[in-house]
Amino acid sequence: PVPTLVSSLKHVLFFSRINMLLVILPFALLAQPLGLPPAWAFVANFVVIVPLAQLLGVATEEVALYSTEMIGGLLNATLGNATEVIISVFAIRAGLLRVVQVSLLGSILSNLLLVLGCSFIAGGIRFREQRYSAKMAAVNCSLLKMAVLGLMIPTALVSTMRANCAVPCHVVQIEQISHGTAVVLFVVYVGLLLFQLRTHAYLHEADNPNE
């Protein structure tokens, strides 16, 4: 039988025991308006992020079932970082730049080390040999280099200008460089989407005999 909206919602909400933590959601939303201690509000919101992030991943996977494998992977990669993006936006508005920096660093390290390592281990358990697209590996390495440069340029500018520029001028110039770098990286990401979905979609087929 075709699943109804109610049955689909029940499946999404109750398929995992982690979703039981959603009962804390009203408390997390009302913690600040009720004047509860900041530590309580932080713990409640921290705990409720876990099931919400899982629900976001499940919803993305469900959408990917009705699309191609490449689109599903892009959805997972894009929406999978929605939690970090939301936290970064609110932290920047609150002036907590150090929180944003640590969040980005943790996200980069977890994806490069934890996620990639677990993928290699899981694939190695099932398959004796694993094959990867050399072309896509080169593309990803190039993107990684650009991302590293995007992080290094403002840092290098701070180091070279700290002793030769007043603080207000220093801050303004660093912000301009950071904004320009962010725009460039966003344009590169849009170009990657066009590359993977439009111009060179044939390179990402799972049954490519050349890779």
TrEMBL record:
Q: Which residue windows are transmembrane per the record?
A: 12-33, 39-59, 71-92, 104-125, 137-157, 177-195
The name under which this protein is listed is: Sodium/calcium exchanger membrane region domain-containing protein
Principal location class: membrane
Which superkingdom heads the taxonomic lineage of this protein's source?
Eukaryota
List the GO cellular component terms: endomembrane system; vacuolar membrane
Cross-referenced Gene3D superfamilies: NCX, central ion-binding region
Membrane topology recorded in Swiss-Prot or TrEMBL:
Multi-pass membrane protein
Q: Which UniProt keywords apply?
A: Ion transport, Membrane, Transmembrane, Transmembrane helix, Transport
Q: Which Pfam families match?
A: Na_Ca_ex
**Location(s) in or outside the cell:** Endomembrane system
Q: Name one process (GO BP) from the record.
A: intracellular calcium ion homeostasis
GO molecular function ontology, one term from the record: calcium:proton antiporter activity
Q: Which residues form the Sodium/calcium exchanger membrane region domain?
A: 39-197
